[in-house]
Amino acid sequence: MPVKINYLKKTISKKSLNIILFSNEEFKIGNVKKILSNSEQSYIKDLLKTSDLKKKIMIFDLNSKKKIILISLKKDQKISDIENLGAELFGRVNSGKNTEYFLISDSIDYKLNNLLGHFLHGLKLKSYEFKKYKTKKSSKLISINIVGIKNVTSFQNRLKFKALEEGTFYARDLVSEPGNILHPDEYAKRLISLKKDGLKVNVYDKTKLKKLGMEALLGVGQGSVRGSYLVTMEWNGAKNNSKPLAFVGKGVCFDTGGYSLKPARFMEDMTYDMAGSAAVVGLMKNLALRKAKVNAVGVVGLVENMVSGNAQRPGDIVKSYSGKTIEVLNTDAEGRLVLADALTFTERKFKPKFIIDLATLTGAIIVCLGSEYAGLFSNDDKLSNQIFKAGEKVDEKVWRMPLHKNYDKLMNSKNADMQNINYVGGAGSTTAAQFLQRFILNKTPWAHLDIAGMAFSKYGGALNSGGATGFGVRLLNQLIEENYE
Ligand code: BES
Ligand code: MN
Ligand code: ZN
User: What is the rounded distance in angstroms from the CA atom of residue 345 to the CA atom of residue 448?
Assistant: First the structure.
């Protein structure tokens, strides 16, 4: 990681070079007598008189050796604004030559704990990069030294954020890996290694899945030389044995489309077709790292959708784990086949309080919502509202889309219980969600998040510098923290 955050117990001398200070809206600086001389303070004041105070971050060179970065905070600033400001600061320090900064936390005169925690969280999230396959390693590491922590709560808060950052970065790493490295065999192996964090991990391989009767999932991976897996990860952090919260993820390590082959320009991105599963994994890792007081289970279906002499054909009919039969009219509508079995299995085995699935399921959701909102489909208003609110808070937004029995009808098949695409056309994301809903057998509250437009950012966003976003980890962590812990 290119940023390291350190906590310094002692104060710094006035000679220190790069200083980060907070001020209020009018750029009035708090208690910094130990850091800046009187003349330096009045010099800044004069400069501020001629500056554009609409800017949130100002940089002053006091002399050739001393630089001040001044950040203005409003008292009632939204959390996501503070995180974005941290991210903006990363941009500023990353483009400069210097690598060591001192952040004077005492210069904030309001509720320090959360402000600073969120600020550093944003900075850290933005600093992520995936450079594993660059042979030339850049050695630049920026240290941000926090000076003057007033009490330990802020530090403990930081531990929570750290867990969330690690979970998010783990998800981003998984999504960033190319298909030749992170195939289902390798993915399953990496998940087993999460036992070290305290998760209970169970891997169901092809043989076990065959015995269980998961033909829908197995059919998708049938053309691949790699294995197909269902992996469960359990975290039991609640004192009682309350029903777990369940999270299910689509883990298509590469989606060629199968015999319903994708054109090249749509295929090249399909290394991120496992982003739903990565969000589930990142969330579970985060829960374990921060020892969340909740029972939760993550379930991911890991397959590779390939063409070969043995691959699934359009028109094949498979029997899902639920017992319902599916006519696979389009082998590129594979995510729902994987999720179908994973959903029924999760409901049957864990009897969860609710199920939320995440999947890069349809291109149609990108047509609807672009890269601003994930699509939310649900059979439960309360759960939907909770997810919506959590999304607003952490700026991983969702927008609810309709389900209706008339859409459901479009998935009926002449030859089997249902088909995997809707031949009338239109409402591609909703009909996919209707298909999934058919595999929730016991009316468990369920929500489906179509994250096809959110999982990968070509040009970067507020809290990422481009590439895998880790969308879903912070959203679901917020949902849990706010409502279930
Ligand atoms: N993985 C794709 C959806 C996707 C598209 C994700 C673009 C991210 C970016 C999914 O498996 C797929 O191919 N869906 C088809 C469904 C269709 C055949 C009914 C689609 O969206 O075209
Ligand atoms: Mn597909
Ligand atoms: Zn796919």
Answer: 16
